[in-house]
Specification:
heterodimer, A: DNA polymerase, domain 1, 2 domains, about 35% helix, B: Uridine Diphospho-n-acetylenolpyruvylglucosamine Reductase, domain 2, five-stranded antiparallel sheet, 11 helices, about 25% strand
Chain lengths: ~160, ~270
């Protein structure tokens, strides 16, 4: 079985995987990082979004072996101890979630979006979250949360 | 997903050898944004996957005289963000920005898109509409010779796309009518005025994939304006019909998108 070496949330990890093992399965099943969700299994919903080398990607649409040698950040890697990341805090503050299933993917997409756009507009956020589906909130509060979170990240 | 043998070669020659050895049972993978979902649904079950991800030389964008060369494994996000592409062929940067979603654009590649030749993909419209040249590890192929039908191209066994060269047009624009749910093109039209003449390429609509519309090209050659193609009808007979749009509706949309593209090209 192929061995993959990754840096996950700042820690070096090594794991034996099948070639067909998806990154999301390695994270959830072998590394116990169950914050990254699988919502659809058809690469559409974005609940599994993580950062690979600083870019938001769908962990269900990337083989673990493809990510060999990469730096991976999951939702568990955002907070510093008990202090939430500004984007997480903004989701809480602005009621950007209801059931919370899509939230890890939303937050990871939003953080990457904010890092790449110094002055996010509402239009940027709505377009930028095109690959993240929420079945509860109707998106409005999510958009408000991302705008506030992006602003807080700049401070 | 079924099991498969995985290779991540470090040279183009090794990649060509491995995919040739795998024969019909092998698949090249660049970003994997189409191949992996297809394998997950067991619509594809290659015995061998040759991952081009380690071939860093295949990614990158270069301006070469009056053309822009885009490496095969350059991601859609990189094309969309490229100052060179934005300056030389804005329509192409905008098209790349409109593919899939941000996460797909971070991994999906131009070479993967055109090698797959999905009838609803965006890039084939730009490649055919701009009269691009596809460079492989074996030869150069003109866009007009490259797209052969649904999911079919002129690529031979062991042949790997290395770059796509786009001539810089005088004017160009791409307009697509998206499926409101999937966001794929129901109809997409790329219009370009180039040194070699006007070209109009349509994706999303043809039963055989991307195609040109010679009647519109002739009308626009004399008068590059939306008005010039108002009377040009595209026959519905060879167009797709599905639950999203009838062939007649697609024929109508081709006219609408073409006129909008001409207007946007200015």
């Amino acid at each position: 079985m192929p061995t993959v070496n990754l840096t996950v949330n700042g820690k070096a990890v090594s794991a034996n995987v099948e070639a067909r093992t998806l990154l999301v399965n390695l994270l959830r099943e072998q590394l116990g990082l169950t914050g990254t969700h699988v919502g659809c299994d058809t690469s559409q919903c974005g609940a599994c979004v993580v950062h690979v080398d600083g870019k938001s990607v769908k962990a269900c649409t990337l083989l673990a072996v493809q990510a060999n040698g990469s730096k991976v950040t999951t939702i568990e890697g955002l907070a510093s101890g008990d202090k939430l990341h500004p984007m997480q805090e903004a989701f809480r503050e602005h009621h950007g979630l209801q059931c919370g299933f899509c939230t890890p993917g939303m937050v990871m997409s939003a953080v990457c979006l904010a890092q790449n756009h110094p002055n996010l507009t509402e239009k940027d956020v709505r377009e930028g979250l095109e690959g993240n589906l929420c079945r509860c909130t109707g998106y409005h509060n999510i958009v408000q949360a991302v705008l506030a979170g992006a602003q807080a990240m700049r401070r | 997903m079924y099991e498969f043998a995985y290779h991540r070669p470090s040279s183009l020659a090794d990649a060509a050898k491995l995919i040739l050895e795998a024969g019909d049972n092998g698949k090249l993978m660049a970003g994997g944004q189409t191949l992996i979902p297809t394998m997950k649904q067991r619509l594809a079950s290659p015995g061998t996957v040759v991952d081009l991800g380690a071939l860093k030389d295949l990614a990158g964008i270069k301006v070469e005289g009056n053309a822009v060369a885009i490496g095969a494994t350059t991601t859609h996000a990189a094309v969309a963000a490229s100052k060179d592409v934005q300056a030389k062929i804005k329509a192409l940067a905008e098209l790349a920005e409109g593919i899939g979603d941000r996460q797909v654009r971070h991994l999906g590649t131009i070479g993967g898109s055109i090698a797959n030749n999905d009838p609803a993909a965006d890039y084939p419209a730009a490649v055919l509409g701009l009269g691009a040249t596809i460079t492989t590890n074996q030869r150069k192929i003109a866009a007009d010779e490259f797209f052969k039908g649904l999911f079919e191209t002129a690529l031979k066994p062991g042949e790997i796309i290395t770059a796509v060269g786009f001539p810089v047009p005088e004017k160009a624009a791409y307009m697509k009518f998206r499926n409101p749910a999937s966001r794929y093109a129901i109809v997409g039209v790329f219009v370009a005025k180039t040194a070699g003449g006007v070209r109009v390429a349509v994706t999303g609509a043809g039963q055989g994939g991307v195609f040109r519309v010679p009647d519109m090209e002739k009308a626009l050659a004399g008068n590059f304006s939306a008005k010039a193609i108002e009377g040009v009808k595209v026959a519905a007979t060879s167009l797709n019909a599905d639950i999203h749009a009838s062939a007649e509706y697609r024929a109508h949309l081709i006219g609408v998108m073409a006129r909008r593209a001409v207007t946007a090209a200015g």
